[in-house]
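Changelog note: in this version the structure field was regenerated for every chain. One regenerated record is shown below for reference.
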Amino acid sequence: MGNKQSYTSTISNNLISLYTTAVHYQKVNGDEQALTYYIQALNQILSMRRTTPDINQLRYNIVHNLCDIYIRQCDITSAKISIGFALQLAYESEGKYKIIEYLDRQGEIKRTEGDYDGALLDHGRSIEMKLKIYGNGGLDFSNSCLNIGNVYNDQGKYDDAIYMYEKSLKIKLSTFDSNHPNIAATYYYMASVYDHQSRYDDAIYLYEKSLKINLSALGNNHPSIATTYNNIGLTYSAQGKYDDAVCMYEKSLEISLSTHGYNRLNIAAAYHNMAIVYDYQGKYDDAVRMYEKSLKIRLSIIGKNHPSIATTYNNMASIFSFQGKYDNAISMYEKSLKINLSRLGSSHPNIAATYNNMATVYFYQGKYDKAICLYEKSVKIGLLTFGNNHASIAATYSNMGAIYDNQGKYDDAVCMYEQSLKIYLSILGYNHPDIATMYHNLGDVYHSQGKYDDAVFMYEKSLKIELSTLGYNHPTVAVTYNHLGNVYSDQCKYDDAVYMLEKSLKIKLSIFGNNHSSIAITYYDIAKVYNDQGKYDDALRMYEKSLKINLSTVGDNHPNIAAIYNNMGLIYYNQGKYNTTVSLYEKSLEIDLSTVGNNHHRIATTYSNMGLVHYKQGKYDEANCLYKKSLKICLSILGNNHPEIASKFNNMGIVYHYQDKYDEAICMHEKSLKIRLSTLGNNHLDVATTYNNLGCVYDNQGNYDSAIYMYEKSLKIMQSIFGNNHPSIAIIYHNMAKIYDNQGRYDDAICMYKKSLKINLSILGNNHPRVANTYHNMGLVYNNQGKYDDAVCIYEKSLKINLSILSKNHPIIAATYSSMGSIYLEQGKYDDAVYMYEKSLKINLSTHGNSSGIAITYNNMGLVYSNQGKYDDAMYMLEKSLKIQLSILDSNHPSIASTYGNMGIVYNCQGKYDNAVCMYKKSLKIQLSTLGNNSPTVAVTYHNIASIYHHQGKYDDAVCLFKKSLKIYLLTLDNNHPSIAATYNNMGLVYHNQSKYDHAVCMYEKSLKIQLAILGDSHPSIATTYGNMANVYSDQYKYDKAIFMYEKSLKINLITLGSNHPSTAVTYHNIGRVYANQGKYDDAFSMYQKSLKINFSKLDKNHPTIAITYGNMAKVYSYQGKYDSALFMYQKSLKIQLLTLGDNHPITAVSYHNIGSVYDHQGRHDEAIYMYEKSLKINMSILGSNHSIIAATYNNMGLIYNNQGKSDDAICMLRKSLKINLLTLSNNHPAIASTYSNMELVYYNQGKYDDAMCMYKKLIKIDLSTLRNYHSTTDTAYQNMGSIYPDQRIYKDAISYYERAATVLLDAQQQDYLNLTKIYRYIALCYDKLNRYDAIEMRQMSKNTRSSSWQIDTVNRIFTNPINQLQAKQNKVPTEDIIPLGSSHRKIKSQQISNPRNKDSVNYTQRGHDE
C-alpha cells in the first residue's frame, strides 16, 4: 500500500477524501468499498487535462493499491493490468524505487498464480536493485526477504523459508523495538512454517509471541489480533485440540464482529474455520451451517467468482463426500473448479487440488479410471508449477497409491507410496507427520497383501514419528493404533487387537468426547474383532454403541447407519438367524436407496449380501435374482469390464456350484476370469482366486486333473505376488490336499497339509485359527486312514488352539467337538460320541438359538442313536432338527431334503420301507424344485430309493432307479467320477442278489475301470471293488478266484492303509468266510484272529465289530459241530453288545437268534424257542411287527416246531412269516420263496402232498422269475418236488422233476458233480421201482459223473426222507446274514451314496471355505 503523505493544494479535497477513504477500507479488509473509492479517484485523475507531479504520484499510489487488492482477491488479470499501468508510470517518472515496487508486486502476482520460480526471479531482481540503492540491511531488504520466505513456504521449502524469515527478523529487530507490529508479523509468518512442518508447539510459541506484541501495540480489538487467534485455532485443530481451536475461533470472531459488524471477510473466515473444526468433530450439520454463513458473507462482499468462494465450495464438497452424497460433492467441486479456472487459469495449484479432490470422490465411487485420470491431471499441473519435489506432488502420488491398493495392484501402490515418501523425506526430513502417513499407507498395502509383519513394522515406524511430533493424545495416533488393531485382528491375535483398539478409543474419547464419528469407527472395529471371536453379544453391543453415535451425529438416514445395519446383519447371519439378517439388510437398503439412489454400488453390495442369505436359506433362484440385480447396477455404473462385475459373476458361479449346476458355475467363473484378466492382468490376486474357484467346481465334478491344474495356476500367481510363504499359498496347498484325500492319496494329502501348516506356523504363529483348521483337516485324513488315535490327537491340538484364541462358545469349538464325536462314532464309542455332540449342541444353543448349526448337531446325534439301534431316539432327534430347519429355512431348502433323507435311513433300518421311500420322495421333491432334474444330489436320492427297492427284493425297480441316477451323473459329472463308479458298484450288488453273476461282474469291472483311472491302482475303493467281485465268485463257488480277489484287496489295503487298519481287518474277515465255506476251518480261524487283532488295536475292546467277529468264529465252531465252543463265542459277542448297544438293539437280537440256532442244533428246542422269543421281543419293540427280520424269526421258530413234531405251530409261525414278507417285500422276493419251501417241508411231514406240491410250485415260480434257470436254489427245488412223488408211488412225475434238476445243473457255469451224482442215483431208484432196465445205465452214469467220497447209505437216507437235506438250505436266516459285516461293499455303498448325513454333518473343509 502506498505511503500516507500530504499533497499540495493542486489536489482537490474531494480527491484526497476519496483516496484516504479507500485506504481506510483497504486496511480493514473492506476491499470492495476500497475498490469503489480508488476507482472514483482514478477516474477523476484521468479526466484531468493537466496533471502535476503530486497528482501523478497519487495516481501511481492508487494503481499500486488496486494491484494489492486484486492480488488479495486473486483477480490476476486485473492485477496484471494495474501493475502494467504502474510500470508505465514508473518509466515515465524514471523512479528506480518504483521499478522495485513493481518487481515486488509482480512477484506477488506470480506467487498467487503458483509461478513460484517466476516469483523468486522477480523478488531476486528486487533485492539486487535494493542492495545497489539502499545497501544491505535496510527495511526494504527485510521485506524482500519476507516475500521470498513466503514463496519458499508455499513451495514447501520450509528450511529455506525459515532462513529468509530469520534474515528479515534480524533486520527488523535492529530497526524496531521488540514490540513492534512488524516484528509480530515476522513471528506470525515463521509460526505458519512450523505449522506446515507439524511443529505445532513451536508454531504456538511464535503465534503467542506475535499475539503478545500485537496486544501491547494494537490493543485487544485489532483485526491482526483476530487473525492471530484464528491461526492459533488452526494449529490447535491440526493437533486435534478441537475445544481449544473453537475457543480461539470464537475470540477471533468476537473481535471481528465488534470491529467490522456481521458482514466482513474476517467474520467469514472465522465461520469457515469453525466449520472445519466441526467437520473434524463429526458435527456435520454444524459444519455445513458455518460454511453457509461464511459463504453468504463472502458472496455479499467479494461476489460469486472469488477463490475464497471456491474454497468454501471445496470444503462443503468434502463433507458431502464423507456423507456419501457423491453427486452433491461433485457438483460443489465443479463449482469450485469453474471459479478457480476463471480466476487462476488452468495451471494453478488450486486447480490441481480440486482435480485431486474430485478424483477422491470417484475413488469412493469405485470409478478408478476417472480417478486416475484426474490425479494425473493434478500431477501434471503440480509438476509444472512446483517441480518434482513438492508436497502436493507427493500427496497426489499417495492418493494414486490408494487407488492401486484398492485395485489390488499392490506393486504399483507401493511404487506410488515410495515416490511420495521420497519427496516428503527430501522436503520435510525424517520426523514429520506426513512421513508417518506414508509409512502408514505402506502398512495398509502390506496389510492388504497379508504381509502382516511388514504391515506392523510400518505402522510402528509411523507411530514412533507421530508420538514424537504430535504427542500421545492426537487423533492420528489413535488412527494408527486402530490400524494396528485391525492387523492383529487379521492375525487372529484378538487380545492384542482389542488392546490396540482400546488405546485408540481412549485417545479419541479424551479428544472428541463420547459422541464423535471417529469413536463410532473404533466401536465398529472392536465389534468386528468380537464377531471373529464368536462373541456375538459383545459384537452387537459395540455395533449398537457405534449406531447410537452415528444416529446422533449424522441422523437416521446416513450411509454409515446403513453400513452398521449391514454388519449387524452379518452377525445374525453367522448365528444362522437369517430372518433377522434379511430385516437388517432391508433397513440398510432403504437408507441407501434414499441417500444414494437406486443405482449406487452400495445398493449393489446390499443386494449381493441379501443374495448370500437367500443362498444359505436354499432359495437359490431368489439368490441369483438378487445377484442379477446387483450385477445390473454395477454394469450401469462401472461398465462391462470392471472387477466388481467379475465379483458378481463369481458369486453367481458359487450359487450354481451349490446347486450342482457345474456347467453354469464354470461359465460364470470363466466370465469372471475374462474380466479380471483384461482389467487386472495375468498376475493379480483376484485372477488367482478365480482359478481356485474353478478348481473347486472341477473337484466336485470329480475332474481331479482339471482341479489340480487350476489350483496350480492359482498357486503360481500367488507365489509371484506373495512369495512362497504367504497364507494364501497355504490355502492352495490346503485345497490340493483335499483332492488327494478324495483320491485316497492320503500320504500326499498329509504332505500338502504339512506344507500348508508350515507356512501358517511361520506367519501366523502356533495359535491361529488357520493352524487349528489345518490340524482339523489332517484329522479327517487320519480318520479316513483309520488312524483314530492320531485323528483324536490332532483334533485335540486344533481344539486347544481354538480355545486359547476364541470364545469357549465359538461355533468352531462346537464344530471340533462334533468332529471328535464322529471319530468316536466310527470307533463305536457311542457314549463318547453323544457326549461330544452334546458339548457341541450346548455351545450352539448358547450362541445361535434355533440355527442351522443346532439342526446339524441334532442330525448327527440322530445318526448315533440310529447306529445304536435306538431308532425312536434317532427319529426324535431328526424331527427336532427338521423343526428348526423348517422355522429358519425355506421349506424347499436342501438341508431339509437331507434331513428327510436321514429319516429315510432310520425307517430303512427299521424295515419300514414304505415310510423310508416316502421320506426319500419328500427329499426328492425339494431337490427337484430347487436343483432341477439333472442335479447330482437328485441322483443321490434316486440311488437311495433304489437301495430300498433292493432291500425289498424289487430288483427291477432298483436297477431302473440306479439307471436314472447313472444317467444324471453321466450328464453332469465327468465320465470318470467316483459317484458313477459307485452306481455301477451298487448295480452290481443288485445283479449279484439276482444271481446274475455275469452282469454283476460286468458292473464291478466298469466301476473298477473308473476307479483305476481316477484313483490309481492302490486306492481303498479299488480294494472294496475287488472285495465285491470276490463275493460274487464266492457265491459261484469259485473259491480260488474269490481268494485271489480278496488277496488283491488285502494287498492294496496293506499298502495304503497299513496292516493295522479296520478295512484290512474286514478283508481278513471276508477271507475267513470263504475258508469257512470251503471247510478250511483252521484257515478261517487264522483270518478271523488276524481281523480280531487289528480291531483290538484300533477299536475299543467292546466295539460291536469285535462282537461280530466273535459271532463269525462261533459260526465256524457250529459248522464243526463244536456247539459248546460256538455258544461260548456267541455269548462273548452278546456280552459286548449288551454293554455297548444295550439289551434292546437289533444286533443284540441277532445274537439271541444265533444262540437259539445253536440250541436247535443241540436239540435243546425249548431253549432255542426261548432265545428266538427274546430276539423277537427286541425286534418287535424296535422294528415293529412287520419287519422282514421278524418274519425270519417266525420262520426259524416254525422249523423248530416242525422238528418237535408240532406241525400246526410250525405252520402258524410260517404263515406269520409269510404274511409279513408279502406286506413288506415284493411278491417275488427270495425270502418268500424260502418260506414257501419251509411250509412245503411241514406239509410233507404231515403227508399233505398236494399242499406241499402247491408250495413248491409257488417257490419255483419265484425262482424262475428272479433267478436264472440254472441257479442252485432252483435245482434243489426240483429235487425236492421229485422226492414227493415216490412216497405216493408216482415215479414218472418224480423222474420228470429229477430230470429238470439235472438239466439245471448241467446248464450251470460250474457244474455241481456231487449233486448231479445224487440225482442220477434218485432216477435209477425210480427206474427200479418201474422195473426199467435202464436203471443200470443210470447207475453207471452216476458212477462216471463222480463217485468219490459218495456213500450209498446217504443216498438211501435222502431218498427215504429227502426233506432233511433242505432244512439247512431253506433256513433263510443263517447265523450272520442279518449283520452284513462280511459285505464290505455295503459299507462303501452307504458311505458314498446311501447315507445323506454327509451332506449335513459339520465339516471344516466344505467347498468355498478357502475361496
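Spot check on this record: The mean pLDDT is 80. The CA atoms of residues 992 and 1000 lie 5 Å apart.
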